[in-house]
Amino acid sequence: QVPTEWININRGKREMTIETFAVQEILDMIAKSGYGFERTGIQLQIQKTNAIVKADKALTFFMLNTLAENARKFTPTGGTVTISTDAKDNYVELAVTDNGVGLTDEEQHMILTSKIYDAQEIGSSNEGIRKEKGNGFGLLNCKGIIEKYKKEGDIFNIRQFNTKSKKGEGSRFSFRLPKGVGRILLMAWLVMNALLGTP
Q1: Residue 192 burial (CB count, 10 A)
Q2: Beta bridge mates, 145
Q3: Reduced to 3 states, what is the DSSP secondary structure of residue 16?
Q4: The pTM is what?
Q5: Which of 119, 148, 162, 186 has its CB surrounded by the most CB atoms within 10 Å?
């Protein structure tokens, strides 16, 4: 369902649905769909968070889930995939880290700069991992979603899609979204402004 929505957005058939929501809602959804990790003997660690973001909820789930599944495919049995959140003053960084096979500098450059690439070339020296690799469209779509946010206003200028990896030591993929304001804080702010504006 989500990939279909992204295709429609990309083709101009649907607008992004920007809303304020708790990141933990997305993390709980990913935790419930962690069968693939159990089946392959990989531990999925999801760090709890109180962070709130302003973004398209469905696409945020798609991105985090895609990065987590991608990490699983490149992590041997017994390894660990961790989803973490780092809230700053004006943005929240969501990251997926693994202790899998890792990427070379050339492979990272290919992922970050290419509009299309042969995913079978990524980690080609690790034949045990190669069987589960996909077509690379997942990461390309994640980059595309972050770029699409540019058209949603200046608030999304903090958007980023990054990778940090070292061959044989694992990888870390991350992206940033604008920090949102919780409903309680928003109501308090509105009430305060209303009181201050009263003669």
Answers
A1: 10
A2: none
A3: coil
A4: 0.78
A5: 119
Q: Mind listing the pLDDT tens digit of every residue in the chain (199 residues)? A: 456 665 666 666 567 788 999 999 999 999 998 888 989 999 999 999 999 999 999 899 999 999 999 999 899 999 999 999 999 988 999 999 999 999 889 888 888 786 655 455 565 555 545 355 555 567 888 888 888 877 766 666 666 788 999 999 999 999 999 998 765 444 444 455 566 664 4
Contact between 27 and 48 (Cβ < 8 Å): yes
Number of C-beta neighbours around residue 109 at 10 A = 12
Three-class SS state of 144: helix
Buried b (16+ CB within 10 A) or exposed e, 19-51: ebbbbbebbeebeeebeebeeeebebebeebeb
Task: Quote the distance between the C-alpha of residue 32 and its chain's center.
Answer: 17
- b/e per residue 65-78 (b: at least 16 CB within 10 A): bbbbbbbbbbbeee
| Residue 143 near residue 161 (C-beta atoms within 8 A) | yes
Ordered strands of the 160-166 beta sheet: 43-46, 80-87, 91-98, 170-178, 160-166
86 and 95 Cβ atoms separated by less than 8 Å: yes
Q: In terms of residues, how long is the chain?
A: 199
**Cα distance between residue 138 and residue 3, in whole Å:** 9
Could you tell me which residues are beta bridge partners of residue 173? Answer: 96, 163
Q: What contacts 162, CB < 8 A, 6 or more positions away?
A: 112, 173, 174, 175
